Task: structure prediction
Amino acid sequence: MKLSNNLNVDVIIVGTGVSGMYAALNLPSNLKILMLSKETVEESDSFLAQGGICVLKDDKDYDNYYQDTMRAGHFENNPQAVDIMISSSKETIRDLINFGVDFEKEKDGSLAFTREGAHSTPRILFHEDITGKEISSKLYEQVKKLSNVTLLEHTTMLDIIEDSKRCYGIIYKDANGDIKTATAPFTIWACGGIGGLFEHSTNFRQLTGDALAIALKHGIDLEHPDYIQIHPTTLYSTKKGRRFLISESVRGEGAKLINSKGERFTDELQPRDVVTAAIRAEMTKEGTSHVWLDMRPLGEEEIKTHFPNIYEKCLEEGYDCTVKPIPVVPAQHYFMGGVKVDMNSETSLSCLYAAGETSCNGVHGANRLASNSLLESLIFAKRAARHLQDREDDKKDYEAACQDGRLEKAFDAIVDSEYYDFNQLMSDYSYSLNSEIRRQRKLTEIRNKSQADKDDLLN
Ligand SMILES: Cc1cc2nc3c(=O)[nH]c(=O)nc-3n(C[C@H](O)[C@H](O)[C@H](O)COP(=O)(O)OP(=O)(O)OC[C@H]3O[C@@H](n4cnc5c(N)ncnc54)[C@H](O)[C@@H]3O)c2cc1C
Result:
């Protein structure tokens, strides 16, 4: 059975986390927008973010914020992307506040800032320990008001429609299991991370890097798919499923990492990869499956008011963190690599954009600085939304392609049979992405080794 065009819109946004929603909110209301979410809207990692969102709190902090981001990223960051993120942070936070996002305030009514690992100063805005839920739910309220947006939940993008080096739309499976297509002059991938590929991850299980696997299939450039961040502190559990994150800001506020003898073994405020390595080394030395995080230095009141969600979750698992240390272990958490994009968030395939965790614009380098990802997702999603609006020639070309048979030709090239066995397709996608991650990891190891050898020769 040949697939045909089911839906024609102006912009397709795959993903309804902060990047997808903020892109939609930055598009004009006269554009017809289709949004898809693999599960419900609330089941995106954006709703899980705990610690907060960074902002340039005053211009004097620019150099330190820039250096903190670069140092955490091992100076492999793209300086231009870092500058864009920091310079656009204040207007983005203003936007969020205008959308009704409620950040913690000081007694005098000014914004309160917290601190996380590898930040030289407190510059993180937060809402209790559910900042992501606060931001995402307020954005969602705004998206629901948009009459130009059709949002489909339990709907999965299976592939893109491509011809003559440009993207014309997507193939998807709807909530009834039917295979459908949607075409548009512009498509934005806002598909989140890859945690679903890992046994232990803080991410939702359905986030399996589908956009990256589709990119590999179509020869769309990826960047550093092996740059994967492990979070040092997730609540240790032997149960299956998502691991519960113990936010970095808990350590920022004074919690201490200790071994089974109650001894501190590292500086808790170092970058994530350094703390993770220290925990792993301690676990190996002691032959344990976890270490401990002592939150008691924060005091009971701070724990219950600043971290109520963490407090409750620990209680559910049988640990009262106001009284005793809790068991913690590193787990996959964030993806610094992704579909390679330029500063307007466009991929190497024309008219296809990517934003948020799915994309790599180089902001994070080899390792993300805590609380930079919500900010980066929002800023670069907005840049995609702004950039595509000016592409009159590409809109005209799309309309011509609908008329002159080019779109028809793209449909003819689709082998529809591969989409009917969903499990096989998803397993093929995971296989190809995992293989690429392994291949890139090897290349990075070789590159680092030859650099170390060169350094040895110079010394
Ligand atoms: C536990 C946790 C705590 C965190 N804390 C912080 C923090 O304090 N500060 C910070 O800055 N960052 C934090 N992060 C990271 C941050 O939450 C994410 O990087 C960010 O929310 C990513 O947003 P996104 O829009 O790119 O993706 P997501 O919010 O993950 O959304 C992805 C969307 O894509 C959809 N999707 C995926 N594949 C498909 C497909 N094939 N078809 C259709 N839809 C698809 C999903 O259904 C979902 O709607 C945290 C992450 C986790 C997991």
